[in-house]
Amino acid sequence: MAKSIPPVWNKIAKHAMLPETTHDERARYNFLANLNKHLAHVSQGNKIAYETRVEPKFKKEHGREIKDTKELGQEIAKDPHYQIWSSLRRSTMEMRQQAGRSIVLRQAEALRDKARALNAGKDSLVLDSNCEIPPYLLAVDNHLMPGSYHTELIEDDVTPAANYDSGIFVTTAGLLGRYNDGGGKAITSWVKKNYPNFNPKRILDIGCGMGHNVLPIARAFPDAEVIAIDTGAPMLRYAHARAMDLGITNVKFMQMDAGKTIFEDASFDWVQSTMFFHETGGKSIYNIMNEVYRLLKPGGLTLHIEQPQYTDDMSLFEKFIRDWDALNNSEPYWSKMHDIEPLDLMKASGFKEEDFMQIGAKAENDLDDGSQNADEPEDHGRSPIWNVFGAIKN
Amino acid sequence: MIDYIKLASSKSKGKRPYFHDDPAVERVLNITMAVAGELAVMRERMDSIERILEKKGLVLKEEIENYVPDSKEIEEERQTWHSEYISRILRIVQQEMEELENPDKSIEDIANDINEM
């Protein structure tokens, strides 16, 4: 069977905040989703090049094995297949940002006005102009998104979120589902299955972004008071407007740093994050986990969906190629976070080892019509296959 | 209004990594991939046009698929288009060959020559 094909972009769920797209803009996204998928196949050549060219040559010249991922990186950088794959992948990531921004920036005012109309008079959107953007977010534009999550090109801008919402489908080749909420859905199902009697009254989602992963949680627990925080005002304006349009009214979106929230001790039953910690920083990650511990009620649950951990049985090559995105798709803290054991991170905040849990999770994808199941090479860094770690606070 | 065209192509923070020995290769590759993307966009647009024409009963896709030139004039017109197109996109290769066949002076040297003319 030929390689599987990604779904067309227009399959994604329409809502009032989704930017308008022309025929050619949709076609451009379709091209880029296919290009991403194609490059996952081209990436397979890196392992072959490494094993048949790079490694033997190094051994012959140095009389020893390559010792670490840094040395591996220096050696493979000279390989022509690695060079062309890397440059094509980088180029594709940049094109994805360009394509998304060219859609949303031309309609920045219209999107802002739509958000204003949906958000007007609602107390479930709380922005705080005194909220400082954490230094780890100011230091880099994660995944090559110019201006990151917080930059406002016009007053009350929502374009960073509109770009994220319309384009994440491209980078994941549609594997997160029609609402890009495959992570939130997966965690909701897991919690419902494993804690059937869990009936959280207050839920906190930290680093909520455009709110795509908190909405399935809010929908599953309609009687819960759900609070979603982020430091990026454009993300929150869009997230709130999007939730309003989708008819989800039990989420309060608040602009706040997850490392220093305003909430009282022991005030939440569930604290959740999804693909958040790898975009924080080496000191902040501990502050944030301390805050998670402080906010949880005794018996409360916390879960964090993250990139897969490195394991001891992983080859040097696999570790190296997993780090490629971290460095070359600008998610630099991801390359450092591997050095922290989630258990140690949680223990440092007061969680007990016996209460720690770690599970694997895969996105629930309502776009999967079976054509996605073909035996595809794992697209390192983009695959919706995650590590989930967490604990019950006792 | 913001300059959305310029801003859409903005650089993100951090020094951009280059993977080829010569950054010029990377530069050209990036431009080529952008053009490849635009060709795919155009192809999808053509596909839409063909399908809409067929739906409206104006043209059958099959007619397009089976079309072959039916006169010498059309044959030549189409082949000339290909010839021009290829020459246009491979311009630099032709120019390098011309230079190889006929090594040339630099423009600075020519400027000096002209200065004496």
Give a quick summary of the entry.
The complex is a heterodimer of chains A (394) and B (117). Chain A has 394 residues and is α/β, with parallel strands linked by helices. In chain A, 44% of the residues lie in helices and 13% in strands.
Q: What does this protein look like?
A:
The complex is a heterodimer of chains A (394) and B (117). Chain A has 394 residues and is α/β, with parallel strands linked by helices. Chain A folds into 2 domains: 9-121 and 134-169, no CATH class; 176-392, Vaccinia Virus protein VP39 (Rossmann fold). Helices cover 44% and strands 13% of the residues of chain A. Chain A has 14 helices and 8 strands. In chain A, strands 1-4-3-2-5-6-8-7 form an 8-stranded mixed β-sheet, sandwiched between helices. The termini of chain A are far apart. Chain B starts with a helix and ends with a helix. Chain B has helices at 4-8, 23-55, 61-66, 72-89, 91-101, 107-115. The longest helix of chain B is centred in the middle third of the chain and has 33 residues, at 23-55. Chain B is mostly helical and 117 residues long. The relative contact order of chain B is 0.03. Chain B folds into 2 domains: 19-67; 69-112, no CATH class. Chain B contains 6 helices and no strands. At the A-B interface, helix 1 and helix 4 of A face helix 1 and helix 2 of B.
Question: What are its keywords?
Answer:
A: 394 residues, alpha/beta, Rossmann fold, B: 117 residues, 0% strand
Helical residues, percent of chain B: over 70%
Helix content bin of chain A: 40-55%
| Biggest sheet character of chain B | none
Low-confidence residue ranges of chain B: none
Largest interface: A-B, 43 and 30 residues
Strand content of chain B: under 5%
Structural class based on helices, strands and sheet pairing of chain B: mainly alpha
Q: How many domains make up the 3D coordinates of chain B?
A: 2
Largest sheet of chain A: 8 strands, mixed
What is the CATH H-level superfamily of the largest domain in chain A? Vaccinia Virus protein VP39
- How would you state the average pLDDT of chain A, rounded? 93
Strand adjacency order, main sheet of chain A = 1-4-3-2-5-6-8-7
CATH class of the largest domain in chain A: Alpha Beta
Please indicate the percent range of residues of chain A in DSSP E strands (runs of 2 or more): 5-15%
Number of structurally distinct domains of chain A: 2
What is the CATH topology of the largest domain in chain A?
Rossmann fold
Instruction: State the total count of DSSP E strands of chain A.
Output: 8
Q: What would CATH call the architecture of the largest domain in chain A? A: 3-Layer(aba) Sandwich
Q: Which class of secondary structure composition applies to the elements of chain A?
A: alpha/beta
Rg from alpha-carbon coordinates of chain B: 23 Å
Mean pLDDT of chain B: 88
